Amino acid sequence: MKTAANLYKLGEFSPSLPSNDDYWIAPDARVIGQVKLGEGVSSVGLCPARRQ
Questions:
Q1: Which of 11, 13, 21, 23 could bridge 2 with an S-S bond, Cβ 3.0-4.6 Å?
Q2: What superkingdom does the record give (predicted)?
Q3: Are 31 and 6 in contact (CB under 8 A)?
Q4: Does residue 36 fall inside a structural domain?
Q5: What is the span of the domain harbouring residue 1?
Q6: Looking at the 3D structure of the chain, how many domains does it have?
């Protein structure tokens, strides 16, 4: 299920989302930079997810 989200680039990197729209991002969440969401993934606000 696709939702409106705040997606942001960070430098040259931008979020990658499933092509089949099988994900959910909370309206107050921010997805920033080199983040890859897989199928069936949910992201909630105030929960940082980062790549190390």
A1: 21
A2: Bacteria
A3: yes
A4: yes
A5: 1-46
A6: 1
